[in-house]
Specification:
By secondary structure, the protein is an alpha/beta fold. The protein has ten helices and 14 strands. It folds into two domains: 159 residues, HUPs (Rossmann fold), CATH 3.40.50.620; 121 residues, Riboflavin kinase-like (Elongation Factor Tu (Ef-tu), domain 3, Beta Barrel).
């Protein structure tokens, strides 16, 4: 996928045949976003134009109302990977900075959508606003589309038959409360963290449960502390894993929170490798056990539950 990270760089890509554009924040690339992407991909194929996503590298709230800006569900690279996996060929992912915030709605349409991307089809959500002060909306886009020769399609919210409206905010609430199953259902895939495996304190190995310790900058939104059943992706292969999120309170009551994955039926040295851990279900909260023996007994139970849950996947 071609990534364009400044407005000026749009001209480096040939849009002579036009484009079908999906526009939005795409935080999570959840099932609602996927409906937007499917619309663009269908239109692009029918019209013979390039499918494009226009989004931002940061949440606009981080500039406009930083105190109200929520944590992102995904890193920049995770979002790009999900968009590429969906079939998007070109992604314009620019920073929402003070300069961008001053662009009027009309100038954005003329300069970026029409002049730059040569848009033929624009897909967006019903509540989409844009331009300086948020003065642009679907009605303005529809009118300018009639004038400038592009079609606007409003994509309805996706409603899950059990959970209701799918949204990034609801997914965030689910993750931060440990309800990774609800987040999975709304995303259409498990929530995931990605990071390099670093050297730990080797306590897990000493008690028979060696773990891959995720260190450095961990990509993705970390769920609430606890023990989870999930998967670890190593070199493209999926392995069952019991995943611990939080401080090891049995040994260090005031210790730093960490993410560790015990890969079941796996042997190998993966220090320095980047892996992804995917969360399927929360097994329990973090517990300060009275002895190492009690901890080990509970970890055996965690592994048993993990095997049972993942056997059903």
């Amino acid at each position: 996928m071609r990534v364009i990270d400044t407005l000026d760089d749009i001209k480096t890509v040939d849009f002579a045949h036009g484009s079908a554009v999906a526009i939005g924040k795409f935080d999570g690339v959840h099932r609602g976003h996927q409906a937007l992407l499917n619309s663009v991909l269908t239109e692009a194929a029918e019209r013979g134009v390039r499918p494009v996503v226009f989004t931002f590298s940061n949440n606009p709230l981080s500039l406009l109302r930083p105190e109200a800006c929520p944590p992102a569900l995904m890193s920049r690279q995770q979002r790009l990977d999900a968009l590429a996996a969906a079939g998007i060929e070109t992604c314009v992912m620019v920073p929402f900075d003070t300069e961008f915030a001053q662009i009027t709605a009309e100038d954005f349409v003329e300069r970026v959508l029409v002049g730059g991307l040569q848009v033929a089809q624009l897909s967006l959500g019903a509540d989409f606003t844009f331009g300086r002060g948020g003065h642009g909306n679907v009605a303005l886009l529809t009118e300018m589309g009639r004038q400038r020769g592009f079609r606007v399609e409003v994509i309805a919210d996706v409603e899950d038959e059990q959970l209701g409206r799918v949204s990034s905010s609801r997914i965030r609430e689910a993750i931060l409360s440990g309800d990774v199953a609800t987040a999975h259902r709304m995303l259409g895939r498990p929530i995931a963290l990605r990071a390099e495996v670093v050297t730990g304190d080797a306590r897990g190995r000493d008690i028979g449960f060696a773990t891959a310790n995720l260190g450095g900058r961990i990509e993705g939104l970390r769920p609430v502390d606890g023990v989870y059943a999930g998967w670890a992706l190593v070199h493209g292969e999926r392995h069952k894993a019991a995943i611990s999120v939080g401080a090891n309170v049995t040994f260090e009551p005031e210790g730093e929170p960490r993410v560790e994955a015990h890969l079941l039926d796996f042997e190998g040295d993966i220090y320095g490798e980047t892996i992804e851990v995917q969360f399927v279900a929360r097994l329990r909260g973090m517990v300060a056990f009275a002895s190492v023996e009690q901890l080990v007994a509970r970890m055996h139970e965690d592994v048993r539950e993990t095997r049972q849950l993942l056997a059903e996947q």
